[in-house]
Design goal:
Shape of chain A: elongated
Structural class of chain A: alpha/beta
Oligomer: homodimer
Low-confidence stretches of chain A: 172-198
Largest interface: A-B, 89 and 90 residues
Strand content of chain A: 5-15%
Strand order of the largest sheet of chain A: 2-3-1-4-5
Helix content of chain A: 55-70%
C-alpha cells in the first residue's frame, strides 16, 4: 500500500473519531485519550506517524483506546468498535514508518532454531537438544528425564569420554596397522579400505589430529567431531560440551536451552546431593563450578556462558521443578512435531 | 520401597547382565559398558548406588547402555531389552541415594508461575504476562502483537503514566472535596462512601502516599498498586515496570518473560528504527539504555535485570523474529489453556 500525506491525515482523524466513539460508549471512564481540540490532536498524530523513532507512542495511544474499548458493556457495539480498531491497527502497521516494520530476526540464527514454528517442516528429521545448565539447577536430571520421555539418546561428559576412549582404542588399532604399511602407499590404501572404510587422507587427518594440541583441546575437538557426526545420524540430547555453538558453527539445526535456578536454591540442592557439605563449602563449590563453566565456554566459544542471547530459551528450573520443566519442554516439542 | 544391601547388590547384577545382553545383541558395537570382571563391576556399582554425590556416574552408564540398546536391529528384542532397562531405571530412581530424589523446585516460585503445567487448573482465571526486554530486541512489538492476538489489554510506561495522570485528576478531586470536610469525621466518611467507596483509612493512605517520596518513587509505587489492582480484575500484558517482581511480592500468579537479542542485532535494529543514528551513536544508545534499565530494576527489586534466574522464561528474539516469538509464546499458552 502506498501512503500519501492525505491518507495519513485521514487515518489520524479515524483514530480521533474512534477514541471519541469509545468515550461516548463508556462515558464515566478515565476520559478520552485525545482530550484536546480535534485539529491539534490530529496534527500531533500525523507527526508521530511520520516519525519512525517515536511511532511507539502512537502504539501506546492505540492500546489505551483498545483497552478501554474492551470494557464497553454492549456486546454488539464492542464488537463493532473492536473491528474498527483492528482496521486502524492494520493501516498503522502498513505505514512505512510503522513500528511493525523492522524485525529483529537473524535469518541464520532462526534457520538453526528448531523451536521456530517456521522450521517445523524442515528436512531435518533429527531432534537435537543442547542443554546447558548451572550446577545444582537440576538441569542434568531434566535432560536425562527428557531423553527418557522422548526415547532418544542422552550424552554427557562421562558418556563422551567413554565413547571417545573406545573410539580411540579402535583408532589406535588402525594406526598401529597403518604404521606397518606406511612405506607402501598402495598396500596402505588397500589396508585402510578393508579396515573400516578409511581413506588414506582420512587416516592422515586422524593421525595428525593430536599434534600440536593439548590433551584438553584434543578431547574438545574430538567431541565436536563426534557431536556433528551424530547430529547427522540421530536425535539426541547433549548436556553441555558447548554443543550449541558447535552445531551453530556447523550449521546444524538444533534447540538450545539453558537451565538455571537462583543461587540460594542451587546451594541448598548441592547440600542435599552431598550431605557431607557444609553450607559454606556448598556455596564455594557452586561458585567455583560456575567460574569453571564460564571459563570453559568462553575459551571455546568466545561467548558468555548463561547469557540468554546465546540460547533459544532459558528456563528457571526453580519455577518449574524437574518434572515441571520436563513437561514444559515436552509441551513445546509436541506442538512443534504436530 | 525399602532397600537393603542385598537388593542393591541384585540391582547392580541386573545392570551388569543387561549390559552383557545388549553387547551380545550388537556384537560389533563399541563394546560393553562394564568390560571388566563381573564381581569388580558389580562391587563398583554398589558403591555408586550407596553414594549420593556420585550417583550421576551410574546414570551416565545406564544412559550409555540404553543408547546402545536403542540400536538393536531386531524390533522384538529391542523392545524387550528396553523394557528391562526401564524397570532397572525405575528401581535406581527409587534408591534413597538416587539422582531422582532432590528436586530444584521452589514451591512458592512454582505456585506463582502460570506457565507451570501444575497450575493450569488454578483458581486464577486471569492471564497476566510480564515482559521485560532489552532495547532493540523487538520485545515491545512482541508484547503488543501478543496482546492483540490474545485480545487482552496491553500496558507500557506511556499508558501507565497516562492512566495515572487521569487517576490523579480524579484523586485530586477527591482530595479537594476531602479537605473541605476534614474537620468533620462523620461528614467526611459519608462523603467518601458516596464518592468511590473510599473509607477514611484508605483516603488517609492515599493522601499520605506522596509524602516523603520522590516523584519517581511515587510514580513507581502508584504503578505497583495499579498493577496489583488490575491483576485482580483482568488479563493483560505489562511491559517492564518490574511487574514480575511486584506480582511475585504480592503473591499474584503470572508469567514472566524476558526478551533479548545479541547486542549487534539490537544496534542494527536501533539504526533501522531511527535512521538518523550513526552506528556509533546507536551503540552508545543501546549501552546507555541497558545501564538505565539495569539501575532501575536493581533499585526497585534488588535483583539483576535480565538474569535468567529472575524469569520463568528467557527468549532470544533474534532466533525467532517478532512473528516467530509471538507464535512461540502463543503455543505455550494454548497448550496451557487446553
Amino acid at each position: 500500500m502506498q501512503f500519501n500525506q492525505e491518507m495519513i491525515q485521514e487515518l489520524a482523524e479515524h483514530i480521533y473519531d474512534l477514541d471519541a466513539e469509545v468515550y461516548a460508549q463508556l462515558g464515566s471512564s478515565l476520559g478520552r485519550v485525545f482530550n484536546r481540540d480535534r485539529e491539534g490532536c490530529v496534527r500531533d498524530m500525523v507527526k508521530l506517524m511520520n516519525s519512525r523513532d517515536r511511532a511507539h507512542l502512537l502504539r501506546s495511544e492505540l492500546a489505551l483506546i483498545s483497552n478501554m474499548a474492551r470494557t464497553i458493556p454492549d456486546r454488539e457495539i464492542r464488537k463493532m468498535v473492536m473491528k474498527e480498531y483492528n482496521e486502524i491497527l492494520c493501516q498503522v502497521k502498513a505505514l512505512p514508518t510503522s513500528f511493525g516494520e523492522c524485525d529483529i530476526l537473524n535469518p541464520e540464527l532462526a534457520s538453526l532454531n528448531a523451536l521456530n514454528l517456521k522450521q517445523r517442516f524442515s528436512q531435518n528429521d533429527h531432534r537435537i537438544i543442547c542443554i546447558g545448565r548451572t550446577y545444582g539447577s537440576g538441569g542434568t536430571d531434566i535432560g536425562f528425564a527428557l531423553a527418557d520421555a522422548l526415547k532418544i539418546n542422552y550424552y554427557d561428559a562421562e558418556i563422551f569420554s567413554e565413547v571417545l576412549k573406545r573410539l580411540d582404542v579402535e583408532k589406535d588399532r588402525i594406526v598401529d596397522r597403518g604404521s606397518f604399511t606406511e612405506h607402501s602407499d598402495i598396500q596402505g590404501e588397500r589396508a585402510f579400505a578393508e579396515n573400516g572404510h578409511m581413506s588414506l587422507k582420512e587416516w592422515m587427518r586422524a593421525f595428525s589430529r593430536y599434534h600440536g594440541l593439548s590433551r584438553r583441546d584434543a578431547v574438545f575437538f574430538n567431541q565436536s567431531d563426534l557431536i556433528c557426526d551424530m547430529a547427522r545420524k540421530e536425535s539426541f540430547i547433549v548436556m553441555g560440551r558447548c554443543a550449541d555453538v558447535i552445531l551453530t558453527n556447523n550449521r546444524i539445526p538444533h534447540i538450545s536451552i539453558f537451565i538455571t535456578a537462583p543461587f540460594e536454591q542451587r546451594v541448598r540442592r548441592a547440600m542435599e546431593i552431598n550431605k557431607k557439605l557444609t553450607e559454606k563449602q556448598a556455596r564455594r563449590l557452586v561458585k567455583k563450578l560456575d567460574r569453571q563453566h564460564t571459563r570453559y565456554y568462553d575459551f571455546y566459544t568466545g561467548r558468555k556462558w548463561g547469557d540468554s542471547v546465546n540460547y533459544d530459551l532459558c528456563l528457571n528450573s526453580a519455577a518449574y521443578g524437574i518434572e515441571g520443566a520436563v513437561e514444559f519442554i515436552l509441551r513445546m516439542l509436541e506442538q512443534n512435531a504436530s
